[in-house]
Amino acid sequence: MSVVINTNTSASLASYNLSNTNVNLQRSLNRLSSGSRINSSYDDAAGTAVAMKFNAAIRRTDATLANVNNAISFLSTQDGVLKNADKILSRISELATLAQDVTKEPADLTLYQNEVSVLQEQLQLMMNEEFNGITLFDAAGAAGATTLDVVTSHDGAQTVGITQADFQTLANTVDAYDVSTNAGAVAAVTAIQNDIESLAAMRAVNGAQQSRLTFAADMLSINKVNLEASVSRIQDIDVATESSALAKYNILQQAGTAMLAQANTASQSVLRLLQ
Q1: pTM for the complete prediction?
Q2: What digits encode the pLDDT tens for the residues 55-96?
Q3: How many other C-beta atoms lie within 10 A of the C-beta of residue 30?
Q4: Phi and psi angles of residue 151, each rounded to the nearest 5 degrees, phi first
Q5: 139 — phi, psi (to 5°)?
Q6: Contact between residue 143 and residue 170 where contact means Cβ atoms under 8 Å apart
Q7: How many CA atoms lie within 13 A of 186 on its CB side?
Q8: Per-residue exposure over 92-118, b if at least 16 CB sit within 10 Å of its own CB, e if not
Q9: Where are the beta strands (DSSP E) in the chain?
Q10: What is the domain class of 46-234 according to CATH?
């Protein structure tokens, strides 16, 4: 090999290797200090893109879960009103049965009707109950009930319908009760049994919808955990593996620095030839 002065190939190569080692060392230090394998898109371009999509899906899943829980609260509030309505209907049923007593005079029946009237008014007021400004019941009193669609997937592809129960029709029917006469009391007892069945059906629908939304909320929670695990596999660092890499790069840096110094001094041997 020729002995030259202007070009020190060994030193250049040693400098190149040392530079690469320093880059890897800094990257390893960055990973260990942040706990993340990907600190820039350069570290893993495809992984960065996938992790971004998963992170966005996690945020949407969180928001969807909050919406589903709010819908469950809506139904719980609705059921609380229906539960009180059941107490009112049961009391009216009791009063109507008492009004059938042949030993009661018209004045007694009037007293029963007074309480029935008050309970009828309360039932009408319950029709206007709301949850965060949204009516719990179908205010129009139309046949059937209004359905509200609750989104149950982060991509909006799945929905579950919850019902604004047709409480107005029931309230209007109860409003027609009149137990101030024996005949009216008999008719009220017959009619109220059907109304109690209607109310029971409303509560059954409410319970079924709460059950379904609860399962939907569980599914969202499971999906969130799985998405977070996927992001972790892409982004999070294996501390044990990276610690080993850090130790290796530290040794390479020290060795590279020593070899660069050695390569720089090697060319000084030329001076011996000039003496």
Answers
A1: 0.80
A2: 999 999 999 999 999 999 999 999 999 999 999 999 999 999
A3: 14
A4: -75, 130
A5: -70, -25
A6: no
A7: 5
A8: bbebbbebbeeebeeeebeebbeebee
A9: 130-131, 134-135, 146-151, 159-164
A10: mainly alpha
